[in-house]
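Lab notes, practical 5.
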Amino acid sequence: MRDGIGSPAPHPGDGLRFVVQLHRARRLHYDLRLEVDNHLVSWAVPKGPTLDPTVKRLAIRVDNHALDYFDFEGVLPAGQYGAGDVTIWDWGTWTPGSGTSPAQALAGGALHADLSGEKLSGRFVLLHTDRSQARNNNQWLLIHKRDASARNGWDASQFPRSVKSGKTNDEILAEHRFGTD
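Output from the prediction step:
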């Protein structure tokens, strides 16, 4: 893992991209977004991702987002979907686990992803909690596998700064309120 503060965004030519946005809306949460078939497949992760393989995180599947949302950092105005402040908590590239396409893996309820980011790295798996044919819930689990990147006790909240700007959510919100950059 690198410090990453103020690092350039991954380019589309570098491979499939991922972003984790720290989003303070009704509740603070992390939005994990993976580039799949020209859009960002997205999950809200209330407690944030972790490198701790002993911890399973709830990940709630939300609407896909357009690729141009990849590097958004700022404030979504009141009355708009997702209103609140957003920072780029992490970004990088990802590689799907071998054997199946990401779209097929998602449809099957188990997506293995090798992440290479500024804060997150290693093998993660997203598991749908209802793996039957009747998938009427959006609940998934986000789990970091035991690998060289695994860190027991690792907590996302210990690393609050944006990898894009180096700012916290409070600093982004204050700039928005006072009109400074």
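Observations recorded by the TA: Residues 14-178 form one domain. Strands lie at 17-24, 28-36, 39-45, 56-65, 74-76, 84-96, 110-117, 121-128, 139-144.
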